[in-house]
Amino acid sequence: MSDDDFLTGFEAGTLTELPHRSHVRLACLYLDRYGEAEALDRLMAGLRRFAAAKGKAEKFHHTMTRAWLELIVAARRSYPGAADVDALIAVCPALATTRALARYYSNDVLSSATARADWVPPDLMPISRGV
User: Fold this and answer.
1) Model confidence pLDDT, tens digit, residues 102-125
2) What span, in angstroms and rounded, lies between the C-alpha atoms of 81 and 35?
3) Of 39, 42, 88, 91, which residue is the least packed, with the fewest Cβ within 10 Å?
4) Is the dihedral of CA 83, 92, 19, 121 positive or negative?
5) Phi, psi of 61 (to 5 degrees)
């Protein structure tokens, strides 16, 4: 599926699923097209809308969404030659696992209702310190 078709399907809520690697792809595409601030705004709104369209509005997690974007930004800064999501994951395999945030967040903090509803900074290590 082309990047444009992927984004259209995501934004319309017509994709049947959005597995982890697709989240990473989505973040990379938004960063490329809109820059960091607008990418975050689009991810927040789009993931809320997508979860609601799938009848799973409760699955949206504010802190995870922002933290993943920050992790992807940090990886792209560390590996500027990785031009697309496949290349980025190849040089930074931590991005391929949903557990990557465990390096930065304790389970108690990340699983809290506060983190789900609003931004909570990492409690173990700043994301900017590396992927």
Assistant:
1) 999 999 999 999 999 999 999 999
2) 18
3) 91
4) negative
5) -135, 110
